């Protein structure tokens, strides 16, 4: 499949949004006619959704079924004419493409700073292949060590109690847990839940152990650490595109 980019434009003069678009377009090269495709959410994934729609319009892709990971992506895909379904009707997804907030060297991710972590984890966890697309600002040595939030989706019932329990869990890592607020009111996810953001002074150590501790708390629905789910990473940087498969995963 040919590239849609001007070969005279080098990555060094691209904006961050153009880098995201490059990563997204590269990921869409993995989409083949007849596939069930998980459609991610956010400023990077929206370029992949638009590209899939463009290829469908051009007849270069056919019989794609998209599984959106948020109401926002659902609306974008409907407006662009991508046929849609859900996990109830299509429990196995061939390929998902989505952005991430942080990516560590083992392709573990933090996601959900836009609030879509639960549906993303359901769809991407059901995918045979999950291609993560980022610009190089998202690469970190350890998840949760960047001073930015690790999101946790919680039920609204006594959310301050759950917030306090989450903060206690990671007290040794200097955790501050904050209920997410948007435009001066509590942020509500597509599932009618709230988000508690964990801000850590130090990384939380063993990620699997941290994940288990969070998920054991009653009141927690899901967290934004995606451990061992991504199969392929595409990074766009000023020096070009890098494609990396998770160790043990074939391209
Ligand atoms: O909830 C939001 C999603 O997890 C996004 O995929 C993530 O926040 C990355 O978004 P963006 O591509 O806009 O940086």
TrEMBL record:
Keywords: Isomerase. Pathway: Carbohydrate degradation; pentose phosphate pathway; D-ribose 5-phosphate from D-ribulose 5-phosphate (non-oxidative stage): step 1/1. It holds the Pfam family Rib_5-P_isom_A. It is an enzyme of class 5 (isomerase). It comes from the Eukaryota. It catalyses: aldehydo-D-ribose 5-phosphate = D-ribulose 5-phosphate. Its EC number is 5.3.1.6. The keyword Isomerase applies. Gene3D superfamilies: 3.30.70.260, 3.40.50.1360. GO terms for molecular function: ribose-5-phosphate isomerase activity. Belongs to the ribose 5-phosphate isomerase family. NCBIfam families: PRK00702.1 (NF001924), rpiA (TIGR00021). This is ribose-5-phosphate isomerase.
């Amino acid at each position: 499949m040919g590239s849609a980019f001007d070969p005279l434009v080098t990555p060094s003069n691209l904006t961050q949004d153009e880098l995201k678009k490059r990563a997204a377009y590269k990921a869409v090269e993995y989409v083949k006619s007849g596939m069930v495709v998980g459609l991610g959410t956010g400023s990077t994934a929206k370029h992949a959704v638009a590209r899939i729609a463009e290829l469908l319009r051009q007849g270069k892709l056919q019989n794609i079924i998209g599984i959106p990971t948020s109401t926002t992506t659902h609306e974008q895909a409907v407006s662009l004419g991508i046929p849609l379904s859900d996990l109830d009707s299509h429990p196995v997804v061939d390929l998902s493409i989505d952005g991430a907030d942080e990516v560590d060297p083992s392709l573990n991710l933090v996601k959900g700073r836009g609030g879509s972590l639960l549906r993303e984890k359901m769809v991407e966890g059901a995918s045979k292949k999950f291609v993560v697309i980022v610009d190089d600002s998202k690469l970190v040595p350890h998840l949760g060590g960047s001073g930015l939030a690790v999101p946790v989706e919680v039920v609204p019932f006594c959310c301050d109690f759950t917030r306090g329990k989450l903060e206690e869990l990671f007290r040794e890592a200097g955790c501050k847990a904050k209920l997410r607020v948007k435009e001066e009111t509590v942020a509500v996810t597509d599932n009618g839940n709230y988000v508690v953001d964990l801000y850590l002074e130090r990384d939380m150590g063993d990620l699997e152990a941290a994940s288990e501790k969070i998920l054991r708390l009653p009141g927690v629905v899901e967290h934004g650490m995606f451990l061992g789910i991504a199969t392929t990473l595409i990074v766009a940087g000023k020096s070009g595109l890098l494609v990396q498969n998770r160790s043990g995963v074939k391209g």
